[in-house]
Task: inverse folding
């Protein structure tokens, strides 16, 4: 077995964690062709809580911050509320390690040399290429990485499909801030199967991370369309822009989500706008902030954080711009 096998296993397991983390237990992106939003749903007092919960699921499945919604499919996958995984951070981590997959002895040939890798897994196979634009053995501006799995199984985790990273732009050194990194992540029917649960993702997105001091970090996930499916459950984000900040010293975080979200549990789609960023500390739910979800006929529900336990829902069920009903709820119930 090649010496890089152990590193491959680590990267593949990180990929599995990322995908399943977005489903309450992953995440990704790719070409958004053919990914469209469903028909808008009509929002009323009866479904306002479900609409609010689906919105938080989408944000939390990618950032892992709020406990009010664990992953994109908490009910379907059945993970507890304590299963917090930051998918964006997980993907960033695995992308930074991607060059380790390729043998160092074959790289220092010429600038912009494209390295290839093909090997067997426990069952199946995996192949890939690394375009090391500046021949420095690290992920830097101009580099690109692609990986294709064909029934590749390591330690009970089976992967199929393709994932690639392009348009890489790196500024500075993350070990000596200021530092920033951005790349486009693409997935083509990329699936992960663990313990009989299969998660598939396809679509496209741009992921970014930056820090001025190595303590406070800003990350983002933007794109035209991404789909994630687990069993009979699925979630689609179109025209999405999710922004997150985190202070690793204090645990303080903020989340902003602007997107059209479609899921079967909603029965269609809602368009989400962040009126005031959601803020909180650590694993606690947001204690401040406001977001509005708009459905068919301009019907809407606005979530207003009261504190880290309680949230207020203002429902406009006739679309005239006025609040028809105000509901008190707990974050945990959404």
Result:
């Amino acid at each position: 077995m090649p010496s890089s096998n152990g590193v491959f296993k680590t990267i593949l397991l990180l990929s599995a964690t990322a995908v399943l983390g977005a489903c309450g237990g992953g995440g990704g992106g790719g070409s958004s062709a053919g990914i469209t939003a469903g028909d808008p749903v009509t929002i009323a007092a009866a479904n306002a809580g479900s609409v609010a919960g689906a919105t938080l699921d989408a944000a939390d499945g990618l950032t892992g911050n709020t406990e009010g919604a664990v992953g994109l499919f908490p009910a379907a996958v059945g993970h507890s509320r304590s299963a917090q995984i930051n998918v964006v951070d997980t993907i960033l981590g695995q992308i930074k390690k991607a060059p380790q997959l390729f043998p160092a002895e074959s790289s220092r040939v010429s600038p912009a040399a494209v390295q290839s890798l093909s090997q067997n897994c426990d069952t199946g196979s995996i192949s890939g290429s690394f375009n090391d634009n500046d021949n420095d053995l690290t992920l830097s501006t101009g580099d690109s990485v692609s990986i294709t799995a064909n029934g590749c199984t390591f330690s009970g985790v089976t992967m199929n499909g393709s994932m690639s990273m392009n348009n890489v732009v790196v500024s500075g050194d993350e070990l000596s801030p200021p530092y920033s990194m951005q790349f486009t992540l693409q997935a083509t029917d990329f699936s992960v199967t663990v313990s009989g649960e299969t998660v598939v993702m396809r679509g496209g997105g741009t992921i970014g991370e930056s820090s001025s001091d190595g303590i406070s970090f800003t990350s983002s996930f933007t794109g035209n369309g991404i789909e994630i499916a687990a069993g009979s459950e699925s979630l689609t984000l179109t025209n999405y822009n999710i922004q997150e900040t985190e202070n690793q010293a204090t645990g303080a975080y903020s989340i902003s989500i602007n997107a059209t979200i479609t899921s079967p549990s909603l029965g269609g789609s809602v368009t989400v706008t962040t009126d005031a960023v959601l803020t909180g500390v650590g694993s606690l739910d947001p204690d401040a902030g406001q977001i509005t979800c708009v459905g068919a006929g301009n019907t809407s529900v606005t979530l207003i954080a009261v504190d880290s336990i309680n949230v207020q829902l203002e429902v406009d069920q006739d679309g005239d711009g006025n609040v028809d009903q105000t509901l008190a709820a707990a974050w945990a119930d959404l």
The CA atoms of residues 40 and 312 lie 23 Å apart.
